[in-house]
Each structure stands twice: as structure tokens, then as C-alpha cells.
Amino acid sequence: MNPASANNTLLIIVGDKSADIYGAKLASELKKINPTIKIIGTGGDNMRKEGVEILYDVKDMSVIGLWEAISKLSLMRKVKRDIMDLIKTKRIKAAVLVDFPGFNIHIASEIRKENIPVIYYISPQVWAWRGGRIKKIAQRVNKMLVILPFEVEIYRRAGVDVKFIGHPLFDVIEDSDKDKLYHDLGLDFSRPIIGLLPGSRDKEVRFLLPSMIDAALLIKKKIPKSQFILPKAKEVDGNYVKGLIREKGIDLKVINGNSHGVFQIADLSVVCSGTATLEAAILGAPLIIIYRLSKVTEIIGRKMLKVRHWGLVNILAGEEIVPELEQEEVNAENISAYALSILRSRQKKDLIKAKLSRITSTLGEKGASQLAAKEIIEFLN
């Protein structure tokens, strides 16, 4: 690598599937502004497609819960060591850290020691748990780009240079051709459609999908014309899903991805807590949020959590606007009871949609990735 290109090199660190999608959009916008920029970092297939040189894949780095995090400590030490070696040998001009706070807040300190500016894109949820991290962030981060409007004041009070850019989900959600979806999937638009979204990690799916299918069978008994669809993440073991469907004896259509398409045609979706819940909210799709953690992770999480709800939609609303089930509450009876109450009531569905619309109207609009790129490019000039 020659000195000219070395001075144009940006490091991006992401640690999960959602961040890989946002990182790809960011890389695309950065290259529109500066076509000669070189981007290196951690990521996945989406960032690879945008020409990012991937050092470690997010499928190996992503974790759920305390025990899985502990099991990957050795790998994460190696990731950190290799990234720091890269920084010292390739003269990185700036570093962009995307979410992934357990790793990124820590490595930010080491990067700053090398006199490299650190831009944090998508803030750790310091308002929800472990608020003390904001002191470390203030010491280690040159610029914080937040995607939730109320985060601005939190960081300003801590003396952090902060900017609200809007939520990048608006950049990745696309309108689907509903008629084509109905046709391709053999779905009848005149009959109820229920989406099942058990998450994008195998562990989540194994925790949640059996209860979701059992709930679907109960719904089918009460509303025989119900149709069920599952948009499977690429990372999820398809053989496990197929085997479970055969075992349970349910008519469940499985498609590859396209959760936003499912949200646009479903009358209701049962969704694992996470980014997909906000995607549903942006699309005005009624949903039930479910989540299940290991007992140890739950105990530790409850001691640290500063908000009443687990689901981001309800956290943003400050109230439970969609049903939220966690831990032992996640069972077929509870899921089906909430689902039936919504499916049978146009008034409930309309109220949920109205409240979701009020929340998402505060999150900005398309263009967050472009705004982030413009802020980041300043550190390369």
C-alpha cells in the first residue's frame, strides 16, 4: 500500500448482522463522497459487497447472553490484537465503531492512544443499562453519531460531541410488491396472515421457535383460515427449522429473509426482541415482542436494566403499546391469547398502528447513512 492510499484508509468495526447491514450502507455513501477511500474492518457479506476488506466475520463475533460472551473471550482478544496490529502497520486515518459496545468501548481506548480519531456510530444504550459507560465514551470518542433523538441531550450533558442523524433502518427498508408476495408464496390476502420471526441467530431460534409454532397451532384451531410465514435469516440452520415444522405438523411457509416484506403483508407478527421490532414499527405492522435469555443472563440484566421494558418499541414509547413477553411468559398459551385478541379486534390493530406511527415519526427519515458519511469524511480530510 502506498502512502497516499494509506492516508485514505478507514477502519470500521461492527459485531452483528444488523450492524453489517448499516456498515454496508455507510461504506456505499462514503465511497460516493470519496471513491478512493479504502475501508478495512470486521463485518459480513453486506459490507464485502460494498468492497470492504473484512478481517473477521460477524457470524463468528456475534453473541447472545453472558455464557456465549465468555466462550468467545479468546477470539475477541485475537480480534483486538489483530486490529491494533493493523492500525500500527497500515496508518489508519480514522476508526468508526458501530454499536457492539462490549468490544468497541474497550478498543476505543487503545485506538485513541495511537492518536487516531474515533467516531462512534449507533450509541450503546447507556440510557437503558450501565449508564456509567458514558464517562469512558466521553474520554475515548471524538464524535458520537446517535440514531435516537433523546440520546443527544444525554451525551451533551457528558461533554461528548454528538449529532443526531436519524435511524439507518429507513435506508434499508424497501417497499415490497404485495401482490407479487401473495402470488409467489401462495398466500390468500383475504385470510389472516401471521408472521413468525424468531431471530437471526440459531440460539434465539432454538429458544423461541418451538413456542411460536405451538402458539400458531392454537391460533389455527381458533381461526382455521390463518396462514403463517417465517422469513428465515441466512445464518439460521434451515435443517433445524424444517425438522421442527415436520415434528409439529404445521403448515408454515418458510422464505429466505425479506422480513420487511412479511411485515407489509402480515396482519400480525410475533417477533424476537431486537432490530426487527423497530423495522415492524417503521412499517406500521402490529406485533408481539418475545424474548428468552439464560437464567444467569436474566438475573444480571435485571440488576443493570434502568428501563421497564425489554422491547425497543415499548422503551421508546415509555409504555407497553405492543404486548411483550419474556422468559417463562414465552409460551404457546400467552402468545396465542395476545395474538387472538389483536387479530379479532380492528380497533386494537388500528390503535397499535397509530402509536407505532407516533414513535417512528421522531426517528427521522431516509438519509441517515448519508449524514453519517458526511460527518465521518471530515476526519479523513
Protein architecture, described:
This protein folds into 2 domains: about 5-165 and about 365-380, 3-Layer(aba) Sandwich (Rossmann fold); about 180-360, Rossmann fold (3-Layer(aba) Sandwich), CATH 3.40.50. The two termini are about 20 Å apart. Mean pLDDT is about 90; it is low at about 1-5. The strands form 2 sheets. It has a 7-stranded parallel beta sheet with strand order 3-2-1-4-5-6-7, sandwiched between helices. A 6-stranded parallel beta sheet has the order 10-9-8-11-12-13, with helices on both faces. It has helices at about 5, 15-35, 45-50, 60, 65-70, 75-90, 100-115, 135-140, 150-155, 170, 180-185, 200-220, 240-250, 260-265, 275-280, 295-305, 310-315, 330-345, 345-360, 370-375; strands spanning about 10-15, 40-45, 55, 95-100, 120, 145, 160-165, 195, 225-230, 250-255, 270, 285-290, 325. It is globular and about 65 Å long. With about 375 residues, it is α/β, with parallel strands linked by helices. Helix content is about 50%, strand content about 15%. Helix 7 (about 100-115) runs parallel beside helix 8 and helix 12 packs across helix 18 (about 330-345). The protein has 20 helices and 13 strands. It comes from Candidatus Schekmanbacteria bacterium RBG_16_38_11. This is Lipid-A-disaccharide synthase.
